[in-house]
Amino acid sequence: MGRAQAPFASAVERGIRNLDSTVRSRAPETPRASTIAAPEGELTSPGRVRPWLRAARPHQWSKNLLVLAPVALGWSQLSTPRLVDALFALLLLCAASSLTYMLNDVIDVEADRLHLTKRRRPFASGHLARRHGVALVAVGLPIVLLLGWLISPAVAASLAAYCALTLAYSFWLKRIAVTDAFVIGALFTMRLVVGTTAATLEWSAWLLTFSVFFFSSLALAKRHTELVGAGPHATGAVPGRGYRYEDRSLTLVLGVAASTASVLIGVQYLMAEVFPRGAYAHPLWLWAAPPLIFLWVGRIWLLANRGEMHDDPVVFALTDPVSHGLGAGMVIAFLLALL
């Protein structure tokens, strides 16, 4: 396998060198540039576990629970084998996402070293060598796809599509303003695709469309947070991104529009697909979902525009009491509709 992966690893390393030179030529001089980390690999050996765990970003695995959303919504079509396949697909997606996060960090290492917080990431700080990350990705991703094939060829194809889109984002699309947010929304939606495929459930066009707009809005909220966080007088290009600091008003307008569209699409999903299906004993309780979603995305954008959002919105929700309360309301409404 090592020989088979060598061309892939070499190609990735060449791409990284080209991207490094591009980032160096475009990145403006800032005071943070003086905080360049120690030469990679000097701080620890590749055998240490903690830097690899940090690079895998296990706290981001919560996003992959979206794989189970079609399972919960399509419970009336579910069987035990289908549930097992969906859970196995969830584990494979966690592995695939960790590997692609590592590759993204390897590609962005120079830009991350200029960032206030990202410079502490294992590759940017020098705790892990980039060549070790490339080798792990080159070996790990084919194994994940092979295991996905054991569930079904369709699951392997959906995992491959997720990985391909993630790699395109890492190498290219993340540097195109607005497109980057849409791609992130599509990547979240791919998690629904993996779950639907693994559990062999009926496809929902309305649910997938809702997901694209909803998560594109959250991606724009993260970008808006970065632009606002630089201060009201910041100008010029954002290093490693396709945005300028003057784009703050654009990200605000597009993000709020996308979140509003997602709520309206959610209403249409209930009316066109959920209610006619007759799978819920008391479906009227599901009307609680649209206003609760509106309240949550409204809070996200309020905090982002104030400069009080200091993390990925999804990660923020895991530690935010208000988000917990709104999420509990969603769960209660779902259970009342079901029972």
Question: What key attributes describe this structure?
Answer:
disordered N terminus; mainly alpha
Give the SSE map.
Elements: H1 2-26, H2 49-56, H3 69-73, H4 80-107, H5 109-112, H6 122-125, H7 130-151, H8 153-171, H9 179-198, H10 205-229, H11 248-277, H12 289-306, H13 313-319, H14 321-338
Helix pairs in contact: 1-7, 4-7, 4-8, 4-9, 7-8, 8-9, 9-10, 10-11, 10-12, 11-12, 12-14
What would you say this structure looks like, in words?
It is a single chain. This protein is mainly α and 339 residues long. The chain folds into two domains: 1-16 and 47-203, Tetracycline Repressor, domain 2 (Orthogonal Bundle); 207-339. Helices cover 69% and strands 0% of the residues. The protein has helices at 2-26, 49-56, 69-73, 80-107, 109-112, 122-125, 130-151, 153-171, 179-198, 205-229, 248-277, 289-306, 313-319, 321-338. Helix 4 packs antiparallel against helix 7 (130-151), helix 8 (153-171) runs antiparallel to helix 9 (179-198) and helix 10 runs parallel beside helix 12.
Strand element count = 0
Number of domains: 2
Biggest beta sheet attributes: none
Mean pLDDT across all amino acids: 84
Q: Rg, please?
A: 21 Å
- Helical residues, percent: 55-70%
- Strand-pairing-aware structural class: mainly alpha
Content of β-strand: under 5%
Q: What would CATH call the architecture of the largest domain?
A: Orthogonal Bundle
CATH superfamily label of the largest domain: UbiA prenyltransferase
Question: In CATH's first tier, which class of the largest domain applies?
Answer: Mainly Alpha
Q: Count the helices. How many?
A: 14
Coarse shape: globular
Uncertain segments are 1-6, 22-38
- The secondary-structure element order is HHHHHHHHHHHHHH
- State the CATH topology of the largest domain: Tetracycline Repressor, domain 2
